[in-house]
Design brief:
It is a single chain. 19% of the residues are buried. β3 (104-113) and β4 (119-123) form a beta hairpin. With 124 residues, the chain is α+β, with helices and mostly antiparallel strands. Helix content is 34%, strand content 28%.
């Protein structure tokens, strides 16, 4: 049990909890702003693909980039599969991510706000 878990009276994190937390941190980093690693985080997919803004191609580029970040920076999630579910009225894009952690099938919900670029990752 970690020092903070003991102080806060929380349960220790399992491996899957650490995967979820790590992916939330990785996907909230903006490429070239939050890291010395130029490949860490999501790029400005709208700016990089201005000619594709709001198109199927821009969304496909974002799908690829999210999956690349998962594969590169979260190796504990094996055989990841990402499916874009759509956008809601509050301008959040919703994704379903599944894979294996510690030999067990796991799934996550990823939400990305299309204006503020905030990303939320949670286990489902």
């Amino acid at each position: 049990m970690s020092f903070l878990s003991r102080i806060q009276g929380t349960q220790p994190e399992g491996e899957f909890d650490r995967v979820v937390r790590n992916l939330g941190q990785v996907l909230n980093i903006r490429k070239e702003y939050g890291s010395v690693l130029p490949t860490l985080g999501l790029g400005d997919y709208e700016g990089e693909h201005d000619h594709l803004h709001g198109t199927h191609e821009a969304l496909a580029a974002l799908d690829r980039e999210i999956l690349e970040q998962v594969v590169r920076y979260e190796p504990r999630l094996l055989s990841p599969r990402l499916v874009r579910l759509g956008r809601d009225p509050e301008l959040w894009l919703h994704f379903h991510l599944e894979g294996e952690v510690d030999g067990l099938p796991r799934s996550l919900r990823i939400k990305l706000h299309t204006i503020f670029r905030q990303v939320e990752v949670r286990a489902t």
